[in-house]
Amino acid sequence: MDLIKSVTSIIDTVKKLKEINDKIKDADLKNVIADLNLELSEIKVKLSEMINENNELKEKIRIIEDTKNQKEELILKNDSYYTKNGDGPFCTGCFDKSGKKIRLIKNPIIAAQDFGKYKCPVCGNFFR
Ligand SMILES: [Zn+2]
Q: Cα(128) to centroid of ligand 1, in Å?
């Protein structure tokens, strides 16, 4: 963010240079200022892209670390996850894929109990 401010400040300084040169009317200096302006604009755009990319990467790292921390607290039982406090069951597939704890629901169809006692409301997998 501070880098963007610095570049913006340099662009302002170049504008002032241009105003001064408008009085002097030096053709060479005018060209140099125009080049400088162009290069600075490009730097500002690239900087914004880098900041966005950096924020996206930080978010990805946060999700990976959250998932890792939560996984250390989960226990695998009957092919589904439970917390150490016994809360659960949670879907293994959904957690391993997205890091989200999806609470399993009781299989609503009695005739389909053979598939499993529980069902994941998100991915639809059955669990014992
Ligand atoms: Zn699921």
A: 14
Q: What is the pTM of this model?
A: 0.54
Q: How far apart are CA 99 and CA 84, in angstroms?
A: 17
Q: How far is the CA of 93 from the centre of ligand 1 (A)?
A: 5
Dihedral class, residue 99 (left if φ above 0, else alpha if ψ from -120 to 50, else beta): left
Query: How do residues 68-121 score in pLDDT, each as one tens digit?
Result: 888 788 999 989 999 988 999 999 999 988 888 999 999 877 777 778 889 999
Let me know how long the chain is. Answer: 128
pLDDT in tens, 48-79: 999 999 999 999 998 888 888 887 889 999 89
Q: Are the beta carbons of 120 and 112 closer than 8 angstroms?
A: no
| Ligand 1 ion: nearby residues, β-carbon < 5 Å | 91, 93-94, 102, 120, 122-123
Segments making up each domain of the chain, as ranges: 2-70, 74-127
- 57 CA → ligand 1 middle, Å: 26
What counts of helices (H) and strands (E) characterise the chain?
Answer: 3, 5
